[in-house]
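In this supplementary section we document a worked example of the pipeline. Step one takes a protein sequence of length 147 as its only input; no multiple sequence alignment statistics are reported here. Step two produces a three-dimensional model, which step three serialises into structure tokens for compact storage. The input and output of this example are shown verbatim.
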Amino acid sequence: MSLRSPRERLGGYVLLPRLIDKVRLQVQGQLPAVYVKNLLGPSPTTLDGQFLAFAGLDGEELREAILSADSNEAILAWIERQAKPHSLAEKQEGAEKIGTYRADVTRVAYRQQMYPDLAAKVDVGALGVFDLIDMDEGRIPTPRQVR
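The serialised model returned by step three reads:
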């Protein structure tokens, strides 16, 4: 099992398939260490925290729902019962907001620390977070030089 792109959606929710993967990989002891610290934490500066805030969910309750469900559809059904209601348009708007965000100086330093190999090749501050993650995890090619 590998982590799905943060762009992938389930029920219109961006990030949700990736969160499911992260929880399942952590239980198996296979989640990369860089992701463990922020897994389902409430910080608004992390993608996990942004998803939880948008959906109005508690991270530990979501973890329990993921681990007790036998399918992605069962997890989505739980979320749809528990989460703040959002239209498909609101989910799309939330995804676009995350996808177009560009990091401030503090976040650029954090990105350089989290993705040192990628930061040596490209300006991680100029990238959207989805591009950054997908490049780091090899789903999209890294430009030869963006700097």
